[in-house]
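Thread: "does anyone have the structure for this chain?"

Original post by V.I.:
We have the sequence but no experimental structure in hand. Need at least a predicted one for the grant figures.
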Amino acid sequence: MSNLLQTFEKKQIEKLTGKKRIPTFRTGDTLKVTLRITEGDKSRLQAFEGMCIARKNNSVNSNFTVRKLSHGEGVERVFPLFGPMIEKIEVVRKGDVRRAKLYYLRDRTGKKARIADRDRGDEADQYAMIEEDPVQELNSNESESSVETKQETANEVKEVEAVQDKQQDKQEEESSEEPKLEEKKEEATAEDAENKTDEKS
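Reply from O.Q.:
Generated one for you, tokens below.
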């Protein structure tokens, strides 16, 4: 059962991350999360920039918490990692921390809340954009359509052959009936001649 769930969740993750890239980030990194907000018929993009203070890895249900100071007040938002409303995630700064959860920053302000920078170099994306899938889908669609057209042409050929066979059978029957009709005519003419000779006699 768990294997089925894992395979299903993997497929869902591939589907959700196929059209966007998710960079590798950790707690302590400063992130810029761009969200798509829909208001009625209109939609707009809104950026939320802050420090990642927590991250939960739970397959499809993975999420991360971003904290920022807005007019001296701390604001936190929890984002689902594979949420469809997230347009893109950018890593602005990489922080050097030794903890998985940075909840102690809630009680600190000013210089005490600062985290040192750490250069981890260029890291590969956690989930890169998949560009090959649409091509594969097109190829599969083309192959399906080619198979369908082949089947249709084969069916048409069979129908044409069946019609030709019927026409040949009719022609053979007609050709076999013609000599019988000639024989009957000959017999009829012979009987008429006999009848006439009998009448004359």
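V.I.: this helps a lot. The chain has two domains: 2-129, 132-196.
O.Q.: and Residues 67 and 76 are 4 Å apart (CA to CA).
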